[in-house]
């Protein structure tokens, strides 16, 4: 609706499950102790009110120091200070809105007194209890809060002031001395507070913020209260986290804390990108109109003398390379506008992920049924033929997408199986590129540029438009670097390809020696973090691989699947050697090996996969699992054996999965911003209130966009990366100039951003 998301955070929301609070339209960040201290550095926060405010005070300071215990005089002031961060948080005992509370608040308005940066106030239940719920007490409450309101509004000009509305009570559990505190009375007091506060400053930006969301939380959880009056600890912690988000999100700017965050200002590079796409649109429109005009002039016309029609020399308007280029950039510009509106502008809502087993496994079963339904015969029956690899990429990508949108990373067994699927992508990278270089022997610059362009084009555009570092889209840097490693391994002297190796078997030993050297280098770098970081800390590599000021994330991602590409290369070498010597049978319907060998290998493959699944399910934590993952991730080879040994299975494929496999890279990257939200931390909400319908609509748009980007990338690859070497060299020089300019502009805008 265009309103401030802070208002929604303070006033509305719902529970996802039992403990996860989802504010309306935005996402809450879960603050750690270190983050809370950084945000509240040199700050003074004051809580003023009754026992309910005291509870909120304790939950708040536990976000700064979890070791704090709820001790001290319950009916007195409590002071807390964290000297490491110079944070002061005070609780001031004022259980009634009366003259004493007014005097304390008035003292803060005086110029000589240091004002708290944040003031959290609220009280009412004591007034109801002491005066036995009389109407006179309510009238006095209105008079008192009317006298306090102008003081709070004055403080709101320089401090953040929150008035906490009273939570409902669970009347059945109240003790006899509290029976007069009814929800009807509480509602009357809340209505009075809302009506009176800000009454004199309705058009002013400086307002007392009404903290009413606590009522909604209490309505769901008050029945778990120990005495019917005070909230259970989990609800208090939620309220404290909301307070922290309201104040700190605009300071810390967490990715997954979209509540209370203003729209980020456009960077210089983003403005230049907008100008470029605008000029592309104008240029395409002009060229298109000129072509249309020329085409009409060349149309058949009647010869006035003979009365016959003359046929045009050209049957249709020709499309020039420039027009095709501008047309592609026009479409890309519109798509990038949608990306920006979805995940940078505060136009669409964002929600937190919430994992349940059904939200992950039901869609998985559904797509598997669809995949089996669209089964067709393959054009060829070789191991890992094109249709089969597309199918493999497709179903893996769909599973990964469901994993991301359902938030299944919190469930460790699913997380470990998804890690195997990511490793399988890298396995295919090793297998596919090794096979190409080994069979074709094509080490030309054109091949390298084509692959790198197709891999990186979308990510480079998103880095510019979405203002994100290259390493943020970690998978593309990973496959790009591994492609260059494969290329270097095979292209460096001596260049050994299949044609050469067929003449002399010793060349096979040469290839194995190269692979052993590669494995040695991988092993050394995996246990030498310092050497790895030094390699990627040199400019301009550091600009590509740094995230949050260091290359640790890149080191972690590389190390996690460090052996998988090597496994793919080794598998390709062994398979192609066996194929050349006709030691495997790849006829339609034929098993890959003899019946006995095939059965043994199938049994080992199934047993290996089941063993891995049992191990993944028994893993204690992610750190322990990730340490062992590189050693056991070779389990993806069992997929290949199970899929290819039986001839009947090898001869068919799912066209449904294969279609998605052909755009798997675009799907993986596009999900960051137009399917998920807040850079994958949340879910994009186009249609609020209808979660299933929302997922259907956003998924349809997301898949269409990914498919269109795939087409644009293919079209531009033919134009930007020509086969002619001299033209290609000129284009490479232009690209080098473009990236140098990009790095220069990035260096200029970094100080302004900090």
TrEMBL record:
<feature type="transmembrane region" description="Helical">
    <location>
        <begin position="683"/>
        <end position="707"/>
    </location>
</feature>
<keyword id="KW-1133">Transmembrane helix</keyword>
<keyword id="KW-0808">Transferase</keyword>
<dbReference type="InterPro" id="IPR057106">
    <property type="entry name" value="NXPE4_C"/>
</dbReference>
<feature type="transmembrane region" description="Helical">
    <location>
        <begin position="422"/>
        <end position="439"/>
    </location>
</feature>
<keyword id="KW-0472">Membrane</keyword>
<feature type="transmembrane region" description="Helical">
    <location>
        <begin position="560"/>
        <end position="578"/>
    </location>
</feature>
<dbReference type="InterPro" id="IPR012419">
    <property type="entry name" value="Cas1_AcylTrans_dom"/>
</dbReference>
<dbReference type="Pfam" id="PF24536">
    <property type="entry name" value="NXPE4_C"/>
</dbReference>
<keyword id="KW-0812">Transmembrane</keyword>
<dbReference type="GO" id="GO:0005975">
    <property type="term" value="P:carbohydrate metabolic process"/>
</dbReference>
<comment type="similarity">
    <text>Belongs to the PC-esterase family. CASD1 subfamily.</text>
</comment>
<dbReference type="Pfam" id="PF07779">
    <property type="entry name" value="Cas1_AcylT"/>
</dbReference>
<feature type="transmembrane region" description="Helical">
    <location>
        <begin position="473"/>
        <end position="493"/>
    </location>
</feature>
<feature type="transmembrane region" description="Helical">
    <location>
        <begin position="599"/>
        <end position="616"/>
    </location>
</feature>
<feature type="transmembrane region" description="Helical">
    <location>
        <begin position="354"/>
        <end position="374"/>
    </location>
</feature>
<feature type="transmembrane region" description="Helical">
    <location>
        <begin position="657"/>
        <end position="677"/>
    </location>
</feature>
<feature type="transmembrane region" description="Helical">
    <location>
        <begin position="268"/>
        <end position="290"/>
    </location>
</feature>
<feature type="transmembrane region" description="Helical">
    <location>
        <begin position="395"/>
        <end position="416"/>
    </location>
</feature>
<feature type="domain" description="NXPE C-terminal">
    <location>
        <begin position="21"/>
        <end position="91"/>
    </location>
</feature>
<feature type="transmembrane region" description="Helical">
    <location>
        <begin position="728"/>
        <end position="748"/>
    </location>
</feature>
<feature type="transmembrane region" description="Helical">
    <location>
        <begin position="505"/>
        <end position="525"/>
    </location>
</feature>
<protein>
    <recommendedName>
        <fullName>N-acetylneuraminate (7)9-O-acetyltransferase</fullName>
        <ecNumber>2.3.1.45</ecNumber>
    </recommendedName>
</protein>
<keyword id="KW-0325">Glycoprotein</keyword>
<feature type="domain" description="Cas1p 10 TM acyl transferase">
    <location>
        <begin position="252"/>
        <end position="732"/>
    </location>
</feature>
<feature type="transmembrane region" description="Helical">
    <location>
        <begin position="451"/>
        <end position="467"/>
    </location>
</feature>
<dbReference type="GO" id="GO:0000139">
    <property type="term" value="C:Golgi membrane"/>
</dbReference>
<keyword id="KW-0333">Golgi apparatus</keyword>
<keyword id="KW-0012">Acyltransferase</keyword>
<dbReference type="GO" id="GO:0047186">
    <property type="term" value="F:N-acetylneuraminate 9-O-acetyltransferase activity"/>
</dbReference>
